[in-house]
């Protein structure tokens, strides 16, 4: 059994890859470079995780066309990254338009070309600041697109085991799976020391606090 | 009104862009390089068409990750291109796995980032050798993905005016729209003179024959 795992190098996707491996899948790692500020750091984390899991392939895909589109602080370096703000009424500016559909379309092409049986993606509906492309209804609609848009002989299951889990749930699972979180990176802003204030840092730190452990990566704010 | 038009440089997508312009849309041209053999020729045709239509943007996207996936004679230069064969029981090897989902995901990101109202794609269910990602059911499923995976304030219509048209219908329409077919390219194999034998050449020549006109591009077989 082979599974395409989308591995960004963050806490969630690394936990996901460990989970897929325990489920018995041989891992085909797919890492996306979409021109995000922290790409170099994320790539090296993703490579480390893939190598620890003895992934049989590591493919990096270039989605830097998102830079041309602008419209997100993750890919437009002139736009400051929104801090976490629970009172914000609109989407944070880290939203990259329809990014998960792009990732899933590529993962499906890769899976169909390589004869893989499954795709694992670490989307979460709860903690992701309301991004529309993290909703269960979006994922269900995409499953239909996969079934209709691939060859009749192709059977690809799309797994999103974290979709209704909190970051804390994921971290408990990851502890059980012995995920080496020192080799993961979540900050949207920095590559040396995590900023501790962007939405991604906020949720990660909250999760480590909830399980009563210290996050092994360095933070500016500590 | 702004529309993202996927312009490959072929006969169909060029006709489509002329159609969208007549419908009153300002054109945002989106051209994909997915490592196909004839890319240089296709790009120059797409640029010419976009400039004739006074497109306000021309964005090229790099989908050469399809080369890494292999599995298609369009992107794997070691695999000979299947000739047209009406008796073939399976998909021709020019099928690029799930390509249209990749194109539509990108087009949606681009449209959402630029505030466009519509996407036009020239897929056809009839003439396209049975590619699964050209079926109306696939397109309908993708419409749902767009609605669910974009912001609530985003409204993007996906138009596929050619989906039930034959190549001959498209050519009649294109004659009416005065599409300059001398600036389009369809051959999967060559860039100097079209081969005349691949599936794409076959359908194009058949259409010109049906309307009783000579295709203005050069062919090896003439």
Could you explain how this protein is built, in words?
The structure is a homodimer of 222-residue chains. The first copy, chain A, is of the alpha/beta class and 222 residues long. Chain A is 37% helix and 11% strand. Chain A is built from seven helices and five strands. Chain A has helices spanning 11-22, 39-52, 65-69, 99-114, 136-149, 167-176, 199-210, and strands spanning 2-6, 26-33, 57-62, 118-120, 157-159. Chain A has a five-stranded parallel sheet, sandwiched between helices. In chain A, α1 (11-22) links the parallel β1 (2-6) and β2 (26-33). In chain A, α1 crosses α6 and α6 packs across α7. The longest helix of chain A is centred in the middle third of the chain and has 16 residues, at 99-114. The mean pLDDT of chain A is 90. Chain A binds chain B through residues 59, 61-62, 64-66, 68-72, 91, 95-102, 104-106, 108-110, 112-114, 132-133, 135, 137-138, 141-142, 144-146, 148-152, and chain B through 59, 61-62, 64-66, 68-72, 91, 95-102, 104-106, 108-110, 112-114, 132-133, 135, 137-138, 141-142, 144-146, 148-152.
Keywords:
5-stranded parallel beta sheet; 7 helices; alpha/beta
How would you summarize what this structure contains?
Two copies of one chain form a homodimer. The first copy, chain A, is built from seven helices and five strands.
């Amino acid at each position: 059994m082979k599974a395409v795992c989308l591995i960004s190098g963050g806490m969630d996707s690394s936990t996901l890859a460990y989970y897929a491996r325990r489920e018995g899948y041989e891992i085909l790692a797919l890492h996306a470079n979409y021109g995000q500020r922290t790409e170099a750091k994320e790539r090296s984390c993703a490579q480390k995780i893939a190598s620890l899991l003895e992934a049989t392939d590591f493919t990096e895909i270039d989605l830097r066309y998102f830079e041309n589109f602008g419209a997100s602080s993750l890919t437009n370096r002139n736009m400051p990254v929104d801090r976490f703000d629970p009172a914000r009424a609109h989407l944070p500016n880290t939203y990259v338009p329809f990014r998960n559909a792009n990732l899933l379309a590529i993962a499906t092409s890769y899976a169909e070309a390589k004869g893989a049986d499954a795709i694992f993606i670490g989307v979460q509906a709860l903690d992701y600041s309301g991004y529309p492309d993290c909703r269960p209804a979006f994922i269900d609609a995409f499953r239909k697109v996969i079934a209709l848009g691939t060859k009749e002989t192709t059977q690809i299951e799309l797994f999103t085991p974290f979709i209704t889990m909190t970051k804390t749930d994921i971290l408990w699972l990851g502890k059980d799976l012995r995920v080496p979180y020192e080799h993961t990176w979540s900050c949207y802003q920095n590559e040396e020391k995590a900023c501790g204030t962007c939405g991604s840092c906020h949720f990660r730190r909250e999760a480590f606090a909830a399980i009563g452990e210290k996050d092994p990566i360095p933070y500016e704010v500590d």
